[in-house]
Amino acid sequence: MERTTLDLWVGTFVVAGIVALGVLAFKVGNLSTYNVSETYQLTAYFANIGGLKQQASIKSAGVLIGRVKEITLDTERYQAKVTMTIDKRYQFDHDTYAKILTSGLLGEQYIGLDAGGDAEMLKNGDTIEHTQSAVVLEDLIGKVINMLAEGPAKPKEANGKK
Amino acid sequence: MSSQTLVELRDVNFAYDRRPILKGINMDFPKGKLVAIMGLSGCGKTTILRHIGGVLKPTKGYVKVDGQVIHDLDRKGLYAMRRKMGMLFQFGALFTDMSVYDNVAFQMREHTDLPEEIIRDMVMMKLRAVGLYGTQNLMPAELSGGMARRVALARTIALDPMLIMYDEPFAGLDPISLTVVGNLIRRLNDALGATSIVVTHDVQESLKIVDYVYFVSNGAIIAEGTAEEIRASGEAFVRQFVYGEMDGPIPFHYPAGDYRQALNLRA
Amino acid sequence: MPVKNSVGALGRRTVNAVWRMGLAARFFGLTLLYSGVSFRRFRLTRREMFFSGVMSLIIIVVAGMFVGMVLALQGYETLKRYGSESALGSLVALSLVRELGPVLAALLFASRAGSAMTAEIGLMKATEQIDAMELMAVNPIARVVAPRFWAGVISMPLLSAIFSAMGVFGGYVVGVVVIGVDEGSFWSQMQSAVDFRQDVMNGVIKSVVFGVAVTVISLFEGFDAPPTAEGVSGATTRTVVESSLVILMLDFILTAFMFRGD
């Protein structure tokens, strides 16, 4: 096969394009945080999910451990049913607490998992019993105004993290 | 017709947008002969070539090449037939993005699985035949008009076709190139044992080389004969054409109303 | 009478446009049908990738850089008002990956490579090279059109990815190096906002669709051009105008499908 400089250029072009795609996938996008490893699924019911979206992150102690797979409304309980995909390396017990949190004041919402003390671990398809719904900003402001009216309160208690 | 006829046109009519271009053309091109189709620009000469090449389909009549009606062939049959034909286009139609070498090698590469060394030898032979051995690395833009025409000729004969068609091979050539190309057409026809059809309006040059001539005017044949017969012809149109007379059956003036009226002259 | 004439002219133009659409669709179908050669003899396609892809590289790299830099500058001014400068990374990356990368790269491709394709094929037709090929029993759609089509379709997503990556780099230079946004939050916000499937892959799909549209328009205009100087120059202009409009219209349709609600 005859090799020409033209082929070299086309090769360079293709490599550059693939490298750029790689940069977009791993450096710009979140492919590096996609779980290539095995996962299992958990569900949790929330009274209000606020602005939680599909693909929102699931964190425990600040570490990304999974993603929200699906959000539906359960018409028996009239609560939001959130299906989560979690890395198999991380196991949680039955007393685990699932909270919808916000990164920063106006940032994206995510689910935080706080492990409890139960001996039995959650298996694929299990439901997390203890949940805390999203903090809705309007409610929060309402509370603050009420507290301010009652007198000087501790503002730290008001920002929803208890 | 006899088996000695390679191309045969019978009562070929062709109309473009209901405008008749060809009206009942009958022609025979015997094997091994060099036949010219002559006529004024726009009289339908090139249309005849396009019918023989199977590009156009006659509205009436038929065109037979090598015993087969060309416009009844399917795509595969048509392409198989075209491999046995070569056509030299008016200005060569060399592929401008390829070198002379690649132009001549084009059909060999497209239609055969020959190894590159054999293709190389064949290209050199064809270039030698048209006297342009040594130009293989030039691009078409670097060639003069006459040289480009000869390279195109080398490309046309690349696969030794049985039928070679020339569309205005003499147009726009200087007198020396004219003679060179004219002689080449004759020599290649005889050397390859091919049949050649030359469409031209260059009477003097083609009468020197051809075996037979058809004169076409307004889509119909008005005269035919060997080169000598044409030269000796007493027909007014042929005389005007052969000797390039300004006025005759083909008038100098465009048909219009009385010129004197336009100038407000009273006769 | 003049009213009637202009209505008639409008009608004729409409019929003509629909007619050409049909021709272009048939042309596209034939191109796909005769695509075998482009892959069996891939060197033909590779050669065209040089002319459409590699030759567009410089303009894509430079334009991508500047678009990213402008985005960072403008984005910073706006985000500063809300105190969320740290979201600059996600703003730059999302706009590039979802919209500006595919769209601007396709527009540049249409004017750089598309117009060249139209002019080249138009001239090949005007100088009877296409007819010559046909009479040499070589199918010009298979030999000339299809390799250019596939080269364009392959090159377009690569160019678009390079454009976006260069844009992010330009945004980084202006945002982090010049303005001084925190580097860590620039990248981490970007990573948490840009989803691989939702954003990057959809951008790639867009650019493939644009690649198909631009090359089909360019090749069809070239093939359909009257074999004269005005014919070819008119076809080249039409290529750029039609491609640009089609890119923007398709972008709207694709965006509506891809990022609906969510």
- Biggest interface, and residues per chain? A-C, 30 and 34 residues
Radius of gyration of chain A: 22 Å
Unreliable residue stretches of chain A: none
Helical residues, percent of chain A: 25-40%
Structural class computed from helices and strand pairing of chain A: alpha/beta
SSE order of chain C, as H and E?
HHHHHHHHHH
| Ends distance of chain C | 55 Å
Explain what this protein looks like in three dimensions:
The complex is a heterotrimer of chains A (162), B (267) and C (262). By secondary structure, chain A is of the alpha/beta class. Helices cover 26% and strands 31% of the residues of chain A. Chain A has helices spanning 5-28, 137-150, 155-158; strands at residues 39-46, 57-60, 63-74, 79-87, 97-102, 109-114, 127-128, 130-132. The longest helix of chain A is centred in the N-terminal third of the chain and has 24 residues, at 5-28. Chain B has 267 residues and is α/β, with parallel strands linked by helices. Chain B contains 10 helices and 10 strands. In chain B, a hairpin with a 2-residue loop joins strand 9 (212-217) and strand 10 (220-225). In chain B, helix 3 (100-111) packs across helix 4 (116-129), helix 3 (100-111) packs parallel to helix 5 (145-156) and helix 6 runs parallel beside helix 7 (203-209). The model of chain B has no long low-confidence stretch (mean pLDDT 83). Chain C has 262 residues and is an all-alpha fold. The longest helix of chain C has 40 residues, at 140-179. The radius of gyration of chain C is 21 Å and the shape is elongated. In chain C, helix 3 crosses helix 7 and helix 5 crosses helix 8. Chains in contact: A-C, B-C. Chains A and C meet through helix 1 of A and helix 3, helix 7, helix 8 and helix 9 of C.
Task: Write a brief caption for the model.
By secondary structure, chain A is α/β, with parallel strands linked by helices. In chain A, 26% of the residues lie in helices and 31% in strands.
Any descriptors?
heterotrimer; B: 267 residues; alpha/beta; 36% helix; globular; C: 262 residues; mainly alpha; 0% strand
How does the SSE layout of this entry go?
The complex is a heterotrimer of chains A (162), B (267) and C (262).
Chain A: H1 5-28, E1 39-46, E2 57-60, E3 63-74, E4 79-87, E5 97-102, E6 109-114, E7 127-128, E8 130-132, H2 137-150, H3 155-158
Parallel strand pairs in A: 1-7, 2-6, 5-8
Antiparallel strand pairs in A: 1-4, 2-3, 3-4, 5-6
Chain B: E1 5-16, E2 19-30, E3 34-39, H1 45-52, E4 60-65, E5 68-69, H2 75-83, E6 85-88, H3 100-111, H4 116-129, H5 145-156, E7 163-167, H6 175-192, E8 195-200, H7 203-209, E9 212-217, E10 220-225, H8 227-232, H9 236-242, H10 259-262
Parallel strand pairs in B: 3-8, 3-9, 6-7, 7-8
Antiparallel strand pairs in B: 1-2, 1-4, 4-5, 9-10
Chain C: H1 2-33, H2 36-40, H3 42-52, H4 57-81, H5 88-126, H6 129-135, H7 140-179, H8 183-193, H9 196-224, H10 229-258
Helix pairs in contact in C: 1-7, 3-7, 4-5, 4-7, 5-7, 5-8, 5-9, 5-10, 7-9, 9-10
